[in-house]
Design goal:
homodimer, 428 residues, alpha+beta, Rossmann fold, 6-stranded antiparallel sheet, 8 helices
Chain lengths: 428, 428
């Protein structure tokens, strides 16, 4: 079952789809060459927004959860990609430790852990699941509603290496974005591969690094396939050190928002788009989805800023702020908004699903903590493109396009991690 | 739909399956490390024989056809593996030329070509299909019963490179085992990757090289998982320069066959196996399936040798001959023999099918030209093993075991190709 695609939207999106399909060999070759020079994130999930006239990634989540939402049919793909990933990073690996999030009371999150354990076990590793949460003091047996069982064990450290009881892993897979900060137990590990690296964690990562890298890639990609990069890249401004408690700074922010709205309007006019523009105001730091507000009218800004944004985040009033062109979500499943999420393992798209929101407007940003969505796995046979089919009517071709955008976002994250790597030697 | 497995056969095969499953992490690690040192064949198909008490590969076909028999569900796996293969060999590749067999009047073979073209197109290459057969003088449009169309074009050579009209490929994929000899047009190509290499072709390859490499690997693998390597390796003897027209040589051959039968009997006794042993007599050279006879009684040998074997092959009476322990086929689909065939792309098992013979006995060797078989694709969800399931009752676990044996055979072919590479430098 695949969501009904809004194909009535003739216009740039179908042209884009056509371009992407026609350029498939060039695109794949381009990615191959890029991945020779740049190391893909170990795993990534990317929320894609399809506005009907433009397409954009919302993020590149380097600690993806919700792997259990992928359909069983794509599991072999994930396993094969996991084999390729492990082979590259640590071929001599025997033991993999998954470090879980602290969210271990959620059946959804536990199902995600079970799925990850299964994938890496199938790829041929001994897999154990550990927690660095002080709450997990002893081995905690988990039983899922479907009958699967596993243990969450307290992570311990000895001789500069971490592990769980009688288990010394060569590779440690973080499934925890460390949004409360990097704990000492994970720092300076002795000859253990920690993936993703600590500078990918939530408190260190800055959103603008990803968006800047993505913008550069979108330009090069646009040139490659002959499209205006705006069709795949939302415009972005940043304002550093904004004091949201100071009247003057709020005015600056409102002006910047207004300027962005004007820029979007010009673009909409150029492309004959009738939609009402909006802007997404985001904190440079902070987890995806928190500290985010959508603005259609700069006058709203001051009144809602403190209430919606900083109250939620519970952070300082002085912030680096991003002002990003909002991208509509135009896919629908019946009347509900369907937001595609694409999953990658290493450089391979292995599947995805739709977050189907029953009661959302088109402008809603992703809410990772929102429990009202229904996951709807991409049908696995639809992952392969169907050349020769008219644009806009083939689900596989649409998914291929989503996969391309998700890979661009994942590549941007790879550039970002290279640029922000504290251990990288400076090259001149 | 999966063939009914003969699970009543308690005994070594179920122990073997259990060992293989229990050793999964060790096995996968071993393969990872092997593939770091040895280049996998580009693609391989392996016929596996399951005698209920032992398991063995019959061959490692380096020019696999019948790709169309794989189920559509496994196509994404084949595409992902093809991406990995291309990335390794020639990341800058744009164009791939598939050189077809001369068998271009068979709808089956043409469907195979269409499937290969699709796989590599999906992997992001421009793919054309060429023929080096003198029969193909101009571009020949093909229309398959399912409506798919493609062209077979005459291969031309200029400046030491081959291609088809206005198409200069960087990689050439042979889907032709060159059983009539290596044609000059394929020799000494200038900066083009020819895969598999010419020394993998039928007239150059010697079966014993594969079997010798496999024997060594079976010993090491047996040690790894703690099994007698005989359980996965048929015994083998060779007699070189046998003149099958000379009475004396026939006696020697009959004696060697008799000796092999005695060795098998001792093994059967050791393992408590009640089956009647048989021997497969094969020509060292020659395509898989031709020049092969099964012998249960050495007295039959002289009488049937000329009639069945050399008449068919139409070759000289002086031959290098292999005397191999026969491995029964015990899997059944209703009453028909079901022979598993496993397909690999690069180092990945991507799928497989059963050849279901309606009217065959258990001792029949594979007959690639036999049109009475029905392909039965492995169900794609069954590719992943299910740890914890009792041995012998889980199709996925059985398939995993088949995949392991097929990978061992493919690895043996890799060793074989290294050892027989005419361009390899001698290392001391």
């Amino acid at each position: 079952m695949v969501p009904h695609l809004v194909t009535a939207l003739s216009g740039p999106i179908n042209e884009l789809e056509q371009r992407v399909l026609d350029s498939m060999p060039a695109i794949e070759r381009w990615f191959r060459l890029e991945w020779m020079e740049h190391t893909p994130p170990f795993y990534t999930s990317v929320d894609v927004r399809n506005a009907g006239f433009k397409l954009a990634p919302l993020n590149a989540n380097l600690f993806p959860s919700a792997w259990h939402n992928l359909s069983p049919e794509v599991l072999p793909l994930a396993v094969q990609a996991a084999m390729a990933a492990i082979e590259k990073i640590c071929p001599e690996a025997r033991n993999l430790l998954i470090v879980s999030d602290s969210n271990v009371h959620s059946t959804f999150y536990l199902s995600n852990l079970a799925q990850l354990q299964q994938i890496f076990h199938m790829a041929g590793l001994n897999v154990r699941i550990g927690s660095i949460s002080p709450e997990v003091k002893t081995t905690t047996p988990i039983e899922l509603p479907d009958g699967r069982t596993f243990n969450i064990e307290p992570v311990t450290r000895a001789n500069g290496r971490i592990g769980v009881a009688h288990f010394d892993p060569c590779t440690i897979l973080l499934n925890n974005d460390l949004h409360t900060g990097v704990p000492g137990i994970l720092e300076d590990l002795h000859q253990q591969h920690l993936l993703p690296p600590l500078h990918a964690s939530a408190t260190i990562r800055r959103k603008s690094n990803l968006y800047k890298a993505y913008e550069e890639l979108a330009k090069r990609f646009g040139k490659l396939i002959g499209i205006d990069p705006w069709l795949i890249n939302p415009m972005l401004e940043h304002l550093n050190g904004v004091d949201t408690a100071a009247e003057h700074d709020i005015v600056t922010l409102a002006d910047a928002t207004d300027a962005m709205l004007s820029k979007i309007k010009r673009r909409y006019k150029e492309f004959g788009i009738k939609e009402k523009p909006f802007v997404v105001v985001k904190l440079e730091h902070g987890r995806q989805g928190s500290g985010t507000m959508t603005v259609q009218d700069p006058k709203q800004l001051a009144s809602t800023l403190q209430r919606t944004m900083f109250k939620q985040s519970g952070v300082s009033s002085v912030q680096d702020i991003l002002i990003q062109e909002g991208v509509l979500t135009h896919e629908r499943m019946h009347d509900a908004v369907a937001e595609p999420v694409v999953y990658l393992m290493d450089r391979y798209v292995v599947g995805g699903f739709y977050r189907v929101h029953a009661h959302s407007g088109v402008q809603d940003d992703v809410k990772l903590t929102d429990s009202t969505y229904v996951p709807l796995a991409f049908a696995e046979t639809t992952r392969l493109p169907q050349p020769g089919t008219r644009p806009g009517v083939s689900a596989p071709n649409r998914f291929y396009m989503y996969g391309v955008i998700a890979r661009l976002a994942s590549l941007a994250a790879s550039y970002e991690l290279e640029a922000t790597d504290p251990d990288a030697e400076l090259m001149d």
